[in-house]
Amino acid sequence: MPGSRRKFIVGLVLFLAAGAVIGSLYSRAGLGLLVAASLALIWQVRQLLSFNRGLRTGDFDSFRYGEGIWQQMFSRFSYEHERGARYKRQYHQVIKEVQKSTNAMPDGAVILNDLNEIVICNRAAKTLAGLKRKKDRGQRVDNILRDPGLTTLLETNDATQTVDIPSPVRDNEWLNCRVVPYGVSQKLLLLRDVTERILLNRMRRDFVANASHELRSPLTVMSGYLDTMAEDEALPKTWQQPVRQMQRQARRMTEIVSELLELSRLEGSGSASTDDVVDVAGLLVAARNACEGQSDGPVIHVQVESTAQLRGNSGEIESVIANLLSNALRHTPQDGEVTLRWTSGSDGAEIVVRDTGEGVAEEHISRLTERFFRVDRGRSRDDGGVGLGLAIVKHVLGRHEASLHITSELGTGSEFRCHFPPQRVVVEAPMLLTDHAQNS
Questions:
Q1: Does 272 reside within a domain?
Q2: Fewer Cβ close by (within 10 Å): the C or N end of the chain?
């Protein structure tokens, strides 16, 4: 192209010079130059119009041969046009392959842009969620799949979180939704049928609730008879210790049944009401006072650093504090310390329970909220809890839109941090109760 450009310029200069020379033969050099320039301009305009017509019609026969700059321009344009057409064919082929692969997926896949508008979806998305690839293209997915949990998931854009929503096309069926980054300014919404899991969880919850309810009556009768036998002065000495052991096991079984029933109730309920206001500081002090009578336990400190209150269920928040405190006391030696802390800020509020106990290995932390999970299998069951307290804490916090964060180190202690979102916090005038915090 640079050589053609030089030839074009040189040819134009020579043509103009020839016009000037011819004009000078008639003593009209200026006129000859002007005529030559006009002819050159007319020729180039004609070629430009022909090229423009070729662009519209695709007929470039008049430019296919020759060595002029217009032929070079056609050659370059033709090359770029063919390369673009080749890339376009490859792009369409890739799109077809992607569609084939996504259509083979059992899970629904929906590609969204940064406005949560549907770009494309596979066949499974149509089957599971009723989405139509052509009709729903460009529509906001949260206007079609209307669920507050999905809306929140799309806003947070957290690939580690999932949400279960009712199926929009079938009754009593459920979909699990996950959002992951995809491409530039896009995201991928994955839909999976989890109806079987939801139904199994319901069956398990109903079975546990029904079985626990049925066990309460016989346990009450057994405990009553055991209490009567233990108080009977005529009970032979050889029976006294077995009866006391049976009493302890009956109380333990009663506690397990009660906590299983509480777990079933929490799992089957929605979010806690925001109508009631909970005095968290008062609950912390009351929990400390309830345990002060244990002379063989560690020292308990209460640090109230906020006058904020919570919107929620007072009894359930009290259960959270009691379970976390009981767990800390069981794993902290007599010369250790347990601290209960209440604080708030612009991002919400927190109940923090910190101890100087034995701590937990990092590989066990993620399992602490599982039912009946025990870190130390060798510990006597009489020395520990029933293994349901932290599971109850997790479900109560879930009902209050809160989260539980656990940090621990072997030999140093553990910290359980319950974070409540700002919408659950009732904030009054900021005030640091240092005197109360230090003296507690």
A1: no
A2: N
